[in-house]
């Protein structure tokens, strides 16, 4: 097992690292949710114990005392970054301290899939079983809001069922240490590649120490094949459930104490439509809710009258078998005024009559996260009663988690409950000397941060997904950001913004000359090639854009010299390209290792001091404006490099890397002597899967020792000396 070290080993490694450097504390920059939370899973046996799983940001446990979420997978290594996509989560009905996670995604970590077992509520994982040879998960795939497809047997805690996406049903009899395929279920893959939607074990059927009755939902229309199976002999045999609805795909299911099984259906796997060429298509725009009488086999359509929408979430009040709450999914109906999203329904009579909770009265409490007020609760794959206070209900959304303390209130107030749950994909962050930290992220623009733990204002006007951000290094009032087909500039360090007209291309990355007079926009063309355009009058009403010579071809991210406004630098798959004419043209000046990061860094306040992270090629530095480079002899690997405020009495800015000094483990390191020596400042419990898509690690220009790192879906994480304040203002020396 390479994912988690035993707890003792981790503790010893932490002590060793702290003996080398001052203690660091790690957390995520306060943004407030932002990403898709696929499911809420509450414990039925312990008050206040609630889990959330996400598609790219790992899993979280609710800390009721602190009213915040605790991240559970920050120890994921860069090699195992795919395990931050959690496809299913299961709790042991007999022992609330035990939690399982099914994790993996096809495009990271070679598609590695693991079943992880924790005996301390997810604080550590004592067992990680690699099941890649048996089946593969896709925690960021369609159907990720279905579930749960993993369940612990209510009669025997050693038995664990897992439904796969392409290989059928699997069973463990040794608490997840090993798995065997349940051959009695005649299901492997489905046309939508989602496979099994859910597995549900009936606790009332426990006999001979195990649950005899097992239900399995299959993500396909009944016209393709049966989509609901039942076993009455602990999985030894399965039969299609007679009379099961065939017009839609089962999403989720819940068993009531009075012997009814409730199932939500939609015409797709969710949480949104599938645009692949499927027959029949899966738009996820329609669906139903059905009730199945387990003993008699009778079916009843209990869909709310007049509502032909896709449904997903379903939960039953443990104190009242006839009281249910359900949610639509991928439905864009009015929700509290100008926003549109999903609807929630409550019944007190087993589905004969429903109350539309949103239509009756909807209010949103933003909890200080101002940006969320412009968005709705949507893609609500999961809705759950709090088992110990069933007035309270939790829902998941494409932007986080919401909770109402009283679903029967008029209006019901839905509180954005995301403190500590930071699931965003960061693209760029820039710490402005004497100013704020500016960020841009996927989906939700980016922010102007003044404190690490305070929700910051979003950039206005909004762009949505924002890919590029640049600050003029010697004229920091000048800032530009880009996303989609729009670009905005600021003359007051991101406080206010004005649109830049006539931009070429879309999305892309940005570079500004040191004085802020020249703007470069590099972007990918439809044919996959890279182009860069330049403007010297982008602040005017009709700016002129001209193609830059010498940057055609691969994906490059030019950067301006921090002192000389005529110079720009770029790294092109092994070739360093330099401009000395204000970015109008670039010429090759040096050759380095070919597979490094395109994110070139320049040392603040120093002309021509250029650093390139070369990944397996190490770390290279030039002090002559990119004409010659020296590879640092003490760095074996470097995935990212960045700079921060110089430490006290240090003559050079602090250098931070995500890398491997020779003889040391991969991690975050800092150097106060221009790379001559390195101190590790993170530990194995704070790896966050590495820098991910944003590929950056960088220091704060106002607070000594403070470092930021991008992640694949955990937001922007930061590490800082344990005694440092959380303000981003300089400390007096």
Topology:
Layout: H1 7-20, E1 24-28, E2 37-42, E3 50-54, E4 59-63, E5 68-71, E6 86-92, E7 95-103, E8 114-118, E9 127-130, E10 150-152, E11 160-163, E12 169-172, E13 180-181, E14 196-201, E15 206-207, E16 210-211, E17 214-218, E18 228-231, E19 239-240, E20 249-255, E21 260-266, E22 289-293, E23 299-301, E24 311-316, E25 324-328, E26 333-334, E27 340-341, E28 344-347, E29 355-356, H2 357-360, E30 362-365, E31 383-386, E32 389-397, E33 400-404, E34 412-416, E35 426-431, E36 437-441, E37 446-449, E38 468-471, E39 479-483, E40 486-490, E41 498-499, E42 509-512, E43 519-524, E44 530-535, E45 546-547, E46 559-560, E47 568-572, E48 575-579, E49 587-591, E50 601-602, E51 610-613, E52 619-622, E53 630-631, E54 635-644, E55 654-661, E56 667-671, E57 679-680, E58 697-699, E59 707-709, E60 717-721
Parallel strand pairs: 30-34
Antiparallel strand pairs: 1-60, 2-3, 3-4, 4-5, 6-7, 7-8, 8-9, 10-11, 11-12, 12-13, 14-17, 15-16, 17-18, 18-19, 20-21, 21-22, 22-23, 24-25, 25-28, 26-27, 28-29, 31-32, 32-33, 33-34, 35-36, 36-37, 38-39, 39-40, 40-41, 42-43, 43-44, 44-45, 46-47, 47-48, 48-49, 50-51, 51-52, 52-53, 54-55, 55-56, ...
């Amino acid at each position: 097992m390479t994912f988690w070290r035993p707890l003792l080993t981790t503790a010893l490694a932490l002590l060793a690292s702290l003996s080398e450097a001052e203690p660091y504390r790690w957390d995520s920059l306060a943004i407030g949710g932002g990403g898709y939370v696929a499911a809420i899973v509450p414990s039925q046996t312990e008050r206040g114990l609630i889990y959330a799983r996400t598609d790219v940001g790992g899993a979280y446990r609710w800390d009721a005392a602190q009213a915040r979420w605790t991240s559970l997978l920050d120890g994921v290594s860069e090699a195992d970054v795919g395990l931050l996509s959690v496809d299913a989560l299961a709790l042991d009905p007999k022992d609330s301290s035990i939690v399982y996670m099914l994790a993996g995604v096809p495009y990271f970590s070679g598609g590695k899939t693991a079943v992880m077992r924790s005996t301390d509520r997810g604080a550590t994982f004592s067992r990680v079983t690699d099941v890649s040879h048996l089946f593969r998960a896709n925690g960021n795939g369609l159907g990720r809001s279905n579930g749960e497809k993993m369940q612990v047997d209510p009669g025997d805690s050693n038995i664990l069922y897992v439904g796969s996406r392409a290989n059928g049903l699997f069973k463990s009899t040794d608490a997840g240490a090993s798995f065997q395929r349940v051959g009695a279920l005649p299901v492997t893959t489905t046309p939508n590649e989602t496979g099994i939607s859910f597995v549900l074990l009936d606790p009332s059927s426990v006999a001979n120490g195990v649950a005899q009755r097992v239900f399995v939902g299959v993500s396909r229309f009944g016209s393709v094949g049966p989509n609901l199976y039942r076993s009455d002999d602990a999985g030894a045999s399965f039969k299609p459930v007679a009379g099961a609805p065939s017009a839609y795909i089962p999403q989720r299911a819940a068993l009531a104490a009075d012997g009814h099984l409730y199932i939500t259906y939609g015409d797709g796997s969710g949480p949104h439509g599938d645009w692949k060429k499927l027959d029949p298509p899966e738009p996820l725009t329609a669906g139903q809710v059905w009730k199945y009488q387990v003993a008699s086999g009778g079916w009843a359509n209990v869909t709310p009258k007049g509502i032909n929408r896709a449904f997903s979430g379903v939960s039953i009040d443990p104190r009242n078998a006839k009281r249910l709450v359900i949610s639509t999914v991928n439905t864009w109906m009015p929700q509290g005024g100008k926003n549109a999203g999903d609807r929630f329904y409550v019944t007190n009579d087993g589905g004969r009559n429903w109350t539309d909770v949103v239509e009756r009265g909807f209010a949103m409490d933003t909890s200080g996260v101002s940006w969320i007020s412009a968005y709705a609760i949507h893609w609500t794959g999961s809705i759950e009663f709090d088992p110990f206070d069933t007035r309270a209900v939790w829902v998941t959304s494409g932007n986080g988690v919401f909770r109402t303390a009283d679903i029967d209130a008029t209006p019901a107030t839905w509180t954005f409950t995301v403190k500590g749950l930071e699931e965003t994909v960061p693209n760029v962050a820039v710490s402005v000397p004497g100013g704020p930290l500016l960020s841009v992220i996927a989906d939700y623009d980016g922010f102007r941060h003044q404190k690490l733990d305070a929700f910051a204002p979003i950039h206005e006007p909004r762009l949505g997904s924002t890919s590029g951000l640049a600050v003029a290094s010697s004229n920091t009032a000048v800032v530009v950001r880009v996303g989609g087909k729009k670009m905005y500039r600021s003359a007051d360090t991101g406080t206010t913004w004005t649109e830049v007209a006539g931009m070429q291309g879309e999305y892309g990355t940005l570079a500004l000359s040191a004085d802020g007079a020249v703007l470069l926009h590099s972007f990918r063309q439809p044919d996959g090639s890279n182009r860069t355009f330049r403007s010297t009058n982008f602040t005017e009403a009709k700016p002129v854009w001209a193609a830059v010579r010498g940057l055609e071809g691969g994906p490059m991210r030019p950067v301006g010299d921090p002192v000389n406004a005529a110079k720009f630098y770029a790294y092109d798959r092994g070739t360093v390209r330099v401009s000395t004419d204000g970015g109008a043209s670039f010429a090759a000046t040096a050759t380095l290792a070919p597979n490094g990061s395109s994110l070139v860094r320049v040392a603040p306040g120093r002309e021509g001091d250029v650093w390139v992270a070369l990944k397996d090629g190490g770390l290279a530095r030039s002090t002559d404006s990119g004409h010659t480079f020296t590879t640092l002899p003490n760095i074996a690997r470097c995935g990212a490099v960045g700079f921060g405020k110089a430490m006290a009495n240090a003559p050079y800015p602090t250098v931070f890397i995500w890398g491997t000094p020779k003889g040391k483990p991969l991690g975050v390191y800092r150097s106060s002597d221009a790379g001559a020596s390195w101190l590790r400042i993170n530990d194995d419990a704070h790896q966050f899967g590495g820098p991910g898509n944003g590929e950056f690690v960088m220091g704060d220009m106002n607070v000594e020792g403070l470092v930021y790192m991008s992640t694949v879906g955990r937001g922007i994480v930061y590490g800082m000396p344990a005694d440092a304040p959380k303000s981003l203002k300089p400390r007096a020396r």
